[in-house]
Each structure stands twice: as structure tokens, then as C-alpha cells.
């Protein structure tokens, strides 16, 4: 019997209970007859109608002091008290599995270190890409590779908004309202549309890929609220889709990490990733580009990843994921990295200043073009003085 | 020191040595300082110029009797003596890692059983999808799911041929010659174009997904040599791409497995998988559809998967993959499964017999349409008497 405690019985937490109950026979088969049992649910609310209603407690210490609890599942969301509870559980010698990207991105290094000291696991497959297997494959299946870059569409809400804008001609505000009415975006959508959620996730992936602690506070982050339908139409005419990306690249100068909207060429399979879907492309020096695609959020997909981590622990696959414990910031200044810009302008001098670029004229005297590749800071200088309508990086 | 022996120093075998040497520092980091050392290479040829030339032997028993050899890497190809060598290595208590889909598909059940008895691993990530992580993610990351179906573009050569046909208007023979001249197709391309390679791979995936032994001899297999440019053009007009798929589905009647060309709608991301790329979509009851995409073959991608398996063993992640050892054939009659057909015909009666279908007329009095869903055997009966030009299943 693998006894677990679920902290936070919201969407993901109740999904975990549902997957365990729904697939109990196939899970037990995979665990050579062992069963996963939800012994406690920590929540301030009570769930008298739920089959597991009698497992609900408000007393975290009861969980901590019960030696039968092998795994603590943290699905509370938010930094506090999720971080403190995770820390105390690990210190008490319990494995912790989480879907909480905020905690992993900001406190992952410390929690992984505590897990190692206590010879337990801190696993977080569900923190990036919902049910898409990405943490474990990067750590394990791509172990033979030096990872060169990781690029992802990591937030379903913003991808849904961008898809609706271009496919149905909506403007940003309309598309956001639709996302809210369908329950994809929250009433306060800032964490999604300002890129904060994407930024946390690319920090987790970058830390894992390059073995160093990449913190959100060190990463340049732009959202999609300034993207207009006109940008998308002009980008489309040039053969590109606009996507909010998290991108991390291992360079000679350090780790280049950014969260921002990017133009993605139609020949890149990420350009075709629409609606609430996520996709993550990992480039390894032996394997080349590998893409993982699927629903990046939702109750059961996310719960599926949490339960897979529980199964890993139950199978005693006790090899902890690690990344560096160094406190140095490995992130380079994004302005010193090379990039290209998609530019919309009404300024006719652009054609002289950026010769050789393919220009796309629109009816109202506007131009759109894609610059040559140059340091971002130098490109910004070169564009100084132009009346730029919009300026978006190109992948 | 993790000592390994490589059996067969061809494309994949030499790639394994290259990845180990090229990425030795990052591998050693992942193995807490341990190094992987190629102690023996078994081959009939000698490689005097190669840095590892002095490790070459023709004596398999020397490898078998050396207690320092922890992992035997089987990259020989073909069934014999690869099967016998793998078996003897496992019986001698050595872990075996392979890229050999022919051996895994036909003898996997037995070899996995021998591995378990001897408390060692038989790992085969490289046997399907080259460097794309798929075996381990299905086994581990999707462990919380009941897998409902697996569908894959599993052979790069045939996907290249189909891509060239539609994108450059080549006929099948022209595209095959191009694939051969680029080294993608072998002089005798039967295993690829007749679907045999795809069939082996879908058998491995089906066995793993459903926990039962699915053997190639029990699976209906069609290749792409009958697909014409006209088929592809008519399919395109209806909004579909033609792909050679391996497909396995868990049904109430047993496991439905087939290898055949299928029409894939443009709204399915698999329709956009072109050239030598592979993609595998797994549908789990919690996670929904997950797609894995990348180069399905090639020296370094395949070697990358082999080395990941070696790293797994070195990390002592000793949880063997298993599937059923029952000798019963779990595969249902593919003709009793429901499907739809894309049909090209000159027979005007088709419009009466298949009312409600969308017909696409071509200039020369031909029709193309997609039937309603019905048992395959019944659809074939319903089409008896029609002069059918071609008939392809629709995903």
C-alpha cells in the first residue's frame, strides 16, 4: 500500500484522486499488485459529498507525523504555504510530488537539495506542460545529449488567444473575453498574458537542461497584450505565425533565456500548434530537434503527470533529478544575444536602412519586414529614430 | 567505470561510441563522476584507423566471460545471431540495450522474461522512433493512464517518399529513386515500402501499451507502393494527407493493430509531419492525445537513445519494462474493426450508394469520396461490384 496525502483539493488535487480511483486496476498492475491509497486530503474546505470526504483534514502535522505517508502531493498553487509545507515534508523524509510551477521555479534548487539530503524525491513532471511528458524525458531519455536549446509554447491560455485572433479575426480584448468565458483564462489573467506563467516554466526547463539555477527574476519577460491583429496579419503575409515562447539557449557567454512573443516560420511544426495546446522543442547535440506536443493544462492531463511521479516513487526509481546548487546567476543579458526583428513601420527610409530584407507592403502605406540577424541591442539602436509601429522577435 | 561491449560496429554501433566520446564530460556529470568505457567491439571487420580499433574482437565468448562488462549493446541488426547473442548475454547476467526492432518485435517477450529472471535489464528505446523518447515515456510518464490507442508515422523513408510525391509532383518510382540516391532507402527497399519496418515498430508499441505480446505475424500489413500521385491529389482536395501509419487500439474485442496507408485530416498535427521525420501519438484516458516528434532514424539520434538506456542502467534504475508472457494472440481481425474508406472510382452509382458523402469530382469523370464509418468487411462488401481505382483507410 502506497499511502499518499494530497495538499489542496482543487482542480488538480481532485483530479489526482480521480485518476487513482479510475485507473486503480491498471495502476496496481504496474506496481506489481501494490495499491495507491489517498490517506489524507489537506484543505480548509470540507467535501461531505465526496467519496474521500472522510480523509479531509486541516491539520498538516497529522500528515507529517504519520509514518505511513510515503508521498505528499502538493497541488495547492501559489508560493505560500506550498513552499513551507513541501520543505517540511521533505525534511520529515517524505517524497514530494508537485504541479506547482511557482514553487518549483523559485525554490526548486533548495527543495531538490533538501530532498537529496533526506534521500527522498522531489518530482514535478506536472509543473510544465500539464500531462505532456517533458521533465522525465529531458532528464532521462535525452541524458546522452548536451542540450543546446529548449523552446516552448508553454501557456495554453495565451496560445488560445493568439489562435482566435488570427483564425477568427478577433482583436486581443475580444479573444481574451472568449478565453475567460470558456474558463481558460482567469478573472485576473495577468500571470498568463504578461508571460509570468511561461517564464516560470522556461526557468524550470532551463535549469534542468543546463544544470544551473535559472530564476524568473533574472529572465526578461514580455507578454502578448501589445500584439495586434495587424501584427499577426502582416506576419502571416511573410510566412509566420506569432506565438508566445519561452526560450533558453546554452551559449558561450552563459544561458540566454527569454519569454516573449516570437514570429515562428510555417516550416516549424510549432507554428501549427493551436488553441490550448502546448509544445516543447528540445534540441540535443546528438538527437537534433525533438518536439513534445499535447494539452498543457486541465484537470486530468495534469493529474496524469502527478500520478506518474507517484508511480515512479512507488517503483523505487530513486534517482533524484538534480541541478546545480550554485547561487550564481547563469543568465546572460538578453540584449547581447543575436536575434532578428519583425518590424512594422510607416517610415519609407526603412527600405534604405535595411536593404536586402523582404518587405511586405500593406494598403495604408505601412511596411512590414524582417531584419537581418544582429545583437538585439544593436538592432534596437539601428531602429532608433524610425517610427516603429511594432517590433517582435523572430525565432 | 561502466564497461560496455558493442556488438556490431555499423552506423548505429559506431554512433554509440561517438556519442559516448563526444559527450563524455556531460555523461560523467550525470553519472556522479562515473565514466562509460567501450571495452569491446564485436565485429567481423577490423577498424585499424579508429581510436577504438584495439577494442575490436571476433570472439563473443570473451565478452560473455568478462565480469567487468555490465552492458552489452546490440546494434547488429537482423534476427540472427543478434537474438542468440542477446539471450546469452542476459543469461550471463549482463544488461542488454538494443536498437534492433526486428529482434524486439519478434523475441521481445522472451528476452524480457529472461532479463527478469536474471535480474538485469533489456532496454530498447532506440528500436522505435530513433532518438525520439517514446518507450520510456509510455512506460513511465504515462503510467497513470490506460492507453487507448497509439498511432505513428514510424518509418522515415516512406514518409520522405510520400512527402516528395505530394510536394513535388513526383510519382512513386521517382520519389523512391530520390530516397535511394540520398541514402534514405536501401538498394532493396522492401522492408520500408512494404510496411514491414513500420509493422515491427507498431508491434513493439502495442505490446508495451497494452501489456500483451503483439507479433508482426498476426498484424495486417500494407505498404505504400500502390499509392499514386492521383490518390494524393484527390485526398488533398478533400483536406487530407496520405501517411503510412502503424496503429494500435485497445477495443472490447481485443487489440486492433494495422500497418497501412491512411488519410490523415489536416487538422491532425500528424498530417504536417514531413520528410524523414517520425511522429507518434499516444492517447491516454487521462492525458488525451500526446504527440512525440523528431527524426526517427540516423546515426546520432539513434545512438542518443541507446546511450540514454545505458545511462538508465548505470543509474541503477533497475525497474524492468515488462509485458505479458502469455502466448495467446491478442490481436483481433482487422476486418471486423470500424473504419472509413477514401475511394476513387469512375462509377457514377457511387453517389447513390453512398449518399451523404462529400464527393470530389476530377476532370476526367473520376470521383473521390470518403465513406461513412462501418466495419471494414462490410464496407468492402458494399463496394463490391464498383470499379474502384483505389481505396485507402481514413484515420
Describe the structure.
The structure is a homodimer of 395-residue chains. Chain A has 395 residues and is an alpha/beta fold. Chain A folds into 3 domains: 145 residues, Rossmann fold (3-Layer(aba) Sandwich), CATH 3.40.50.720; 161 residues, Dihydrodipicolinate Reductase, domain 2; 61 residues. The first copy, chain A, has 14 helices and 17 strands. In chain A, the strands form 2 sheets. In chain A, strands 7, 8, 9, 10, 11, 12, 13, 14, 15, 16 and 17 form an 11-stranded mixed sheet that branches. In chain A, strands 3-2-1-4-5-6 form a 6-stranded parallel sheet, with helices on both faces. The termini of chain A are far apart. The interface between A and B is large, with 53 and 53 residues. Strand 12 of chain A pairs antiparallel with strand 12 of chain B.
CATH architecture of the largest domain in chain A: 2-Layer Sandwich
Structure summary, number of beta strands of chain A: 17
How is the quaternary structure best described? homodimer
Number of helices of chain A: 14
- The rounded distance between the terminal residues' Cα atoms of chain A is 49 Å
Shape label of chain A? elongated
The CATH topology of the largest domain in chain A, please?
A: Dihydrodipicolinate Reductase, domain 2
CATH class of the largest domain in chain A: Alpha Beta
Low-confidence stretches of chain A: none
The main sheet of chain A comes to:
11 strands, mixed
Helix proportion of residues of chain A, in percent? 25-40%
Tally of individual domains of chain A: 3
CATH superfamily of the largest domain in chain A: Dihydrodipicolinate Reductase, domain 2
Strand content of chain A: 25-35%
Amino acid at each position: 500500500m502506497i499511502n499518499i496525502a494530497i495538499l489542496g483539493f482543487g482542480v488538480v488535487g481532485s483530479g489526482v484522486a480521480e485518476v487513482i480511483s479510475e485507473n486503480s486496476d491498471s495502476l496496481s498492475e504496474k506496481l506489481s499488485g501494490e495499491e495507491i491509497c489517498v490517506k489524507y486530503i489537506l484543505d480548509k474546505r470540507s467535501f461531505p459529498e465526496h467519496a474521500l470526504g472522510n480523509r479531509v483534514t486541516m491539520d498538516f502535522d497529522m500528515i507529517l507525523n504519520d509514518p505511513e505517508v510515503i508521498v505528499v502531493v502538493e497541488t495547492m498553487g501559489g508560493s505560500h504555504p506550498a513552499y513551507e509545507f513541501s520543505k517540511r515534508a521533505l525534511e520529515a523524509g517524505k517524497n514530494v510530488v508537485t504541479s506547482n510551477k511557482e514553487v518549483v521555479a523559485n525554490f526548486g534548487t533548495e527543495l531538490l537539495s533538501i530532498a537529496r539530503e533526506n534521500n527522498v524525491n522531489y518530482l514535478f513532471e506536472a509543473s510544465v506542460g500539464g500531462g505532456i511528458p517533458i521533465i522525465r524525458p529531458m532528464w532521462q531519455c535525452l541524458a546522452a545529449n548536451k542540450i543546446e536549446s529548449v523552446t516552448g509554447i508553454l501557456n495554453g491560455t495565451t496560445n488560445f488567444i493568439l489562435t482566435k485572433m488570427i483564425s477568427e479575426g478577433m482583436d486581443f480584448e475580444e479573444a481574451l473575453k472568449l478565453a475567460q468565458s470558456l474558463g481558460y483564462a482567469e478573472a485576473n489573467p495577468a500571470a498568463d498574458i504578461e508571460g509570468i506563467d511561461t517564464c516560470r516554466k522556461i526557468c524550470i526547463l532551463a535549469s534542468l537542461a543546463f544544470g544551473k539555477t535559472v530564476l524568473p527574476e533574472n529572465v526578461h519577460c514580455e507578454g502578448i497584450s501589445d500584439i495586434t491583429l495587424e501584427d499577426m496579419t502582416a506576419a502571416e503575409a511573410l510566412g509566420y505565425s506569432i506565438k508566445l515562447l519561452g526560450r533558453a539557449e546554452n551559449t558561450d557567454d552563459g544561458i540566454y533565456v527569454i519569454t516573449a512573443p516570437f514570429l515562428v516560420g510555417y516550416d516549424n511544426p510549432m507554428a501549427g500548434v493551436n488553441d490550448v495546446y502546448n509544445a516543447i522543442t528540445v534540441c540535443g547535440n546528438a538527437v537534433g530537434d525533438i518536439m513534445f506536443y499535447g494539452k498543457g493544462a486541465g484537470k486530468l492531463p495534469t493529474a496524469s503527470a502527478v500520478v506518474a511521479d507517484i508511480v515512479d516513487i512507488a517503483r523505487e526509481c530513486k534517482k533524484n533529478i538534480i541541478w546545480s546548487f550554485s547561487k550564481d546567476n547563469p543568465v546572460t543579458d538578453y540584449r547581447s544575444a543575436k536575434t532578428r526583428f519583425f518590424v512594422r513601420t510607416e517610415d519609407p527610409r526603412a527600405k534604405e536602412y535595411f536593404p536586402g530584407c523582404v518587405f511586405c507592403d500593406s494598403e495604408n502605406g505601412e511596411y512590414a519586414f524582417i531584419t537581418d540577424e544582429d545583437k538585439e541591442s544593436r538592432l534596437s539602436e539601428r531602429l532608433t529614430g524610425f517610427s516603429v509601429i511594432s517590433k517582435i522577435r523572430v525565432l
